[in-house]
Amino acid sequence: MKVKSAWFCSSCGNKQLRWNGQCSACHEWNTLQEEVEASPRSMRAKLPVKNQGPLRLKEIAHTKTTRTSSGISEFDRCVGGGMVTGSLTLIGGDPGIGKSTLSLQIASSFATAGHLVLYVCGEESLEQTSLRAKRLGIDADSILFFNETDVSEILRIVDEVNPELLIIDSIQIIYKPEITSAAGTVSQVRECAATFMQLSKSRQISTLLIGHVTKSGDIAGPRVLEHLVNTVLYFEGDKELQFRLLRVFKNRFGPTDEIAVFQMTEKGLKEVQNPSQLLLEERTRGNTGSCIIPTVEGSRPILVEVQALVTDTFFPQPSRRSTGIDPNRLALLVAVLEKRARFKLHSTDIFVSVTGGIRVNEPAADLGIMLSMASSFSNRSMDPDTLVVGEVGLGGEVRGVSRIEARLKEGLQMGFQRFIIPKRNLQGLTAGKMRLVGVSWIDEAIDELMR
Ligand SMILES: Nc1ncnc2c1ncn2[C@@H]1O[C@H](COP(=O)(O)OP(=O)(O)OP(=O)(O)O)[C@@H](O)[C@H]1O
Ligand SMILES: [Mg+2]
Ligand SMILES: [Zn+2]
Prior knowledge:
11 helices; binds adenosine-5'-triphosphate
């Protein structure tokens, strides 16, 4: 049989027939690796039951999804109320962010509740793992640790001990001997994940796969597996800061975009019930360029501080940098501020960041980001007790946002009383103790805040 090989992108998994410096799908550079293609027959996961042919809706037998609590309420809420039995969950994140810690804590709660857990540590030795477990104060008799990287060995042990929760730390180090390419390549990672998918479905084991986000290009990242697994969680945050955000990227059994906030401590990850408070703790009131925005992540409103620094540039090409905000969105907001509110930003460097290592993706943050730039540019501070929310269109118009009540409520709880919101959102709101200012245009909002 002729062995076929192809080039796979280690970032997104895209297959190309020829080598190229840049991936044609995700446009990353130097991510293409030559691999022997797995034959389609081995790639296809075998169906655990015999196919009955097509059925009508009412003919389909319903097995109820059962969920097991992880013991970490924030995690449970994030995935839609506990881990679904027989499902495959991927936890992706940067190296050192805390993936093993979280998995070990989940393992511990499962074990304490009387479920048998098999923790496969391929990445670290048993000693290292046990040291971490000691530090976290975990002493559960029903966790079995197993140091192995060969899939067939893992399958054999699963067969033998019959665990209810299986943790693979990490999927990039596991390999199938039948496949010639090295562990961590796109074909290995996919093939191994498919095997675990089949295993968890057919034996009703909840499985957690850990995957590092890689920069090097020769190891396939977790994105390669996104379409394959049931649930994808990404662990983010600034490694230096203690915050860790668990974000639901995909969920076949619950809502996406949900987030859980944790704090990394010596004793492991602690749930943060009131992230707004923690995020605003270190702010200095009355700084120029600072604005507090009530964002909504999933079902949870969080107050975040956006800081902007606008300074004269000494270079022909001014620099625009952002942390926690999409650079394309920033470029657009700068252009609108320049054109519609007549701020001369073309000869300034602009830096914008969201404090606490949080990423803000929703357009409802537009108005706050623009006002913080306006404040820094004109060197006038904004009222520190005012919250700002609103989407801004290309014409400089302020558009309505979703979930306004939840945002205002979170603000009130944190002691804010004055709110600048889109005029459209005023309809149907009862102000009560709040002072609501509705704006329709960006310049109105600027006048309002920096009078
Ligand atoms: N003694 C300690 N006290 C407080 N925090 C610690 C301590 N030891 C480790 N940590 C935290 O734990 C993090 C490492 O956690 P963990 O090993 O779970 O990450 P990981 O995502 O599994 O990393 P890797 O990609 O290396 O497997 C460190 O970055 C640090 O923040
Ligand atoms: Mg680890
Ligand atoms: Zn790619």
